[in-house]
């Protein structure tokens, strides 16, 4: 049971939220889109910390061999760098959407939430919600990217 990896996952979600918040300021005409995603990423962090408590109380398990710490650290660094770049240089909407797609895809491909196994209905529901919401984020961002490309 490696709580530090779970905390890194929560911090990863918060870092993504920071990036999406920066995008909401960069693109006022799309503020609601980015602000909603940012809020949901913060909620993911809360859900992961809730699962961490479930792991401590033996209502769930976390397989720390399923996720490589270096993958999370690299992704955290990438997202932080993207956020700094937005503040320093700005970014196009197409660029922001592409970065967001890459990030959400990496969470899906990394199967970050597959490392959790719930023993209670509540913890199983949380795990399922996290996995589904990442998939939904990808679809929403992809739709926005497609729409933008059509009119760009």
Order of helices and strands: HHEHHEH
- The CATH level-2 architecture is identified as Up-down Bundle
Query: How big is the Rg?
Result: 16 Å
CATH class: Mainly Alpha
Describe this structure in words.
The chain starts with a helix and ends with a helix. It contains five helices and two strands, in the order H-H-E-H-H-E-H. Helix content is 78%, strand content 4%. It has 152 residues and is mostly helical. The protein has a single domain, classed as Up-down Bundle (Ferritin). The protein has a two-stranded antiparallel ribbon. The radius of gyration is 16 Å and the shape is elongated. The protein has helices spanning 3-26, 31-56, 69-89, 93-109, 121-151, and strands spanning 60-62, 116-118.
List descriptors.
152 residues; mainly alpha; Ferritin; two-stranded antiparallel ribbon; 5 helices; 2 strands; 78% helix; 4% strand
Quick structural overview:
With 152 residues, this protein is mainly alpha-helical. The chain has five helices and two strands.
List the helices and strands and how they pair.
Blueprint lengths: L2 H24 L4 H26 L3 E3 L6 H21 L3 H17 L6 E3 L2 H31 L1
Antiparallel strand pairs: 1-2
């Amino acid at each position: 049971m490696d709580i530090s990896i779970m905390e890194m996952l929560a911090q990863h979600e918060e870092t993504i939220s920071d990036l999406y918040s920066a995008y909401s300021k960069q693109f006022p005409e799309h503020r609601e889109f980015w602000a909603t995603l940012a809020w949901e990423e913060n909620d993911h962090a809360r859900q992961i910390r809730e699962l961490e408590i479930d792991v401590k109380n033996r209502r769930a398990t976390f397989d720390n061999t399923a996720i490589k710490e270096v993958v999370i650290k690299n992704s955290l660094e990438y997202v932080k760098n993207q956020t700094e770049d937005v503040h320093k240089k700005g970014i196009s909407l197409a660029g922001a959407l592409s970065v967001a797609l890459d990030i959400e895809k990496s969470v899906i491909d990394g199967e970050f939430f597959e490392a959790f196994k719930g023993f209670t209905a509540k913890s199983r529901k949380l795990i399922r919600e996290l996995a589904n919401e990442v998939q939904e984020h990808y679809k929403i961002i992809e739709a926005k990217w497609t729409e933008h490309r059509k009119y760009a």
